[in-house]
Amino acid sequence: MTTTTTPGRRTDPPRAVPDTPGRGAPGGFAGAVASEWTKLWSVRSPYFCLLAGLAITGVFTYYYASIARINDDPVQPVGNAAASSAVLVQFAVVVLATVAVTSEYSTGSVRASLLWVPLRYRFQAAKALVAAVVAFVAGTTFAVLGTMVAWVAFDGRASFEAGQSLRQVLAIGLYQALVAVLTVGVAFATRHPAGTLSILVPLLWALPSVLLGLGGPTLADVNDHLPHGAGDHLMRIGAAAPFTPVTAVLIVAAWAAAAHLIGLYVLRRRDA
User: What UniProt keywords are attached to this protein's entry (predicted)?
Assistant: First the structure.
């Protein structure tokens, strides 16, 4: 077999066609987000986490409202039951975000992910955004379910205002989204589920419980500046708060940003 060429004409090798909008998979940050979204829902663990969150919300809010009714507590906003359940429900979000990061390290697939998305800050930011969106939607869903269950269990010992309840639902969703970003940062720093949980369980639950149990204004002030302490002031209505909801959001966001930066530092310094 012979190849003929035309004198005076140069045959160039085929050139790659650049990506154009609407052709093939998206690139850049949008492509990284789409990839992380697909990877998250390709395994069963996120579904189990969300189902666990729904179950915990239903049980805890019914218990909270029933105890308030039995003890004849003063009338309070019905959304406070859903806000109180966040101390436990947040760990469904923590586990979901942890698995989204550490599962790639345990299987070694993180190497392929970093080949597809070589910019490490983009890779981490895509995971954080996907986890935050899922956590926000899940958190607002949990809050709506908790409010409905608590309204039945309160049996008239709670107040309901549409605007106030909507504000609490959005606040709970926002808090859960920030917890997801915090978790992604810690997971990138530790690269192991046990290491991530050993940091977040004390930070989000054990330490606040100890500080409030010991009592005293100084320890209470320390708790107010921890993620869940500030988040509780954001989500709950009626209790005296040492700062505004905006300040509470900034405190939780500062914790999330610090964890994100630490995780990014480790991701850049250590090989996958």
Answer: Membrane, Transmembrane, Transmembrane helix
Tell me which residue range forms the domain holding 52.
Answer: 29-269
Give DSSP secondary structure letters for the chain: ------TT---PPPPPPPP-TTSSS--HHHHHHHHHHHHHHTSSHHHHHHHHHHHHHHHHHHHHHHHHHHTTPPPEETHHHHHHHHHHHHHHHHHHHHHHHHHHHHHSTHHHHHHHS--HHHHHHHHHHHHHHHHHHHHHHHHHHHHHHHHHHHTTSEE--HHHHHHHHHHHHHHHHHHHHHHHHHHHHH-SHHHHHHHHHIIIIIHHHHHHHH--HHHHHHHHTSHHHHHHHHH--SS--SS-HHHHHHHHHHHHHHHHHHHHHHHHHS--
The reply to whether the predicted model has a pTM over 0.85 is yes
- What tens digit of pLDDT does each residue of 4-49 get? 444 444 444 444 434 444 444 567 999 999 999 999 999 899 999 9
* Residue 7 within a domain: no
Inside any domain, residue 11: no
